[in-house]
Amino acid sequence: MSVAARPSALSHRPAAPAGPQTPGSRRRAGLLLLTLLVLGLACAASVAIGARPIAPGTVWDAVTAFDPSNGDHAVVLSRIPRTVLGVLAGAALGLAGAAMQGVARNPLADPGILGVNAGAAFAVVLGIYVFGVTRLTGYVWFALAGAAAAAVVVYLVASLGREGATPVKLALAGAALSAGLMSLLSAVLVSSQQTLDTFRFWQVGSVSGRDWDTILAVLPFLAAGALIAVSTGRMLNGLSLGDDVARGLGQRVGLSRGITALGVVLLCGAATAAAGPIAFIGLVIPHVVRSFTGPDYRWILPFSMLLAPALLVSADVAGRVLLPPGEIPVGVTTAVIGAPVFIWLVRRRKLAEL
After folding, report:
1. Could you say which architecture CATH assigns to the domain 81-348?
2. How do residues 73-117 score in pLDDT, each as one tens digit?
3. Is the dihedral of CA 294, 305, 230, 167 positive or negative?
4. Where are the domains of the chain?
């Protein structure tokens, strides 16, 4: 598509900031600090609220002067890994969702657009069925391998033809691969009751019952994926103008998509391995962020990285108190919260091409 055929895209090209003292930059920086405060409050609530409520003073004492003989201190200590994993998984899914919407120029894209989630889930099922893996730390390697393999297959299929891996071909290839992998996954599950029993507790998506071993196992992959994704802001700004315009500006489109896909694979594979498939975080949060930051991915990515874990941790807290004494898994809670919000966003304004 020629440059003249995309006047609206050019008119909405993110402008380079004039400097750190511009009013827009100061406003966004203030909002970023406010988002960080909201995340901190969500984390404090996650440690204090549950089947056994803990007073704020007791929470502080448990963190600063832990007493092994104090039952409330033990409860606080047990909730910290759950909260940390919620923050890490939420940040990973928010970053991955924003990056996927940018690289695919599709407002309905989420990490599943490349078949990443389906690939990770299918690999985990194979790990359980073939190799007898039962620990979350063992899921990490299978989830990462499955996510990476799915992304490579989708990109290779979408690259066939003269135009290469266009956004539409990426979406179609991802949807087709996801459907095929989920069919194979179902075939494995119906043939093994033991695999089904193990897999269904992971499949629902939850941050409960995880320990520091799980966090340490996925932390290197999450850190590497976050560094890659955050650094792609300028690349995604160029891709948002269209492939022809981006090439005209000197950008290597294929390389940009490959780097972004690598970050998404690391983030989604590690987060999915640790917490299971959690829906709507990567789909809704970038739209919410874009509504007050504009189209500049240099701001969309960091905001998504902070706002997504705030939503996930808050949803986890809500799941603990809605149906006491039991808990609603966070994967269910985020779907209940995210679906109406996304419908409201779609009805409120037309989702333009990214």
Report:
1. Orthogonal Bundle (1.10)
2. 888 888 999 999 999 999 999 999 999 888 887 777 777 667 888
3. negative
4. 81-348
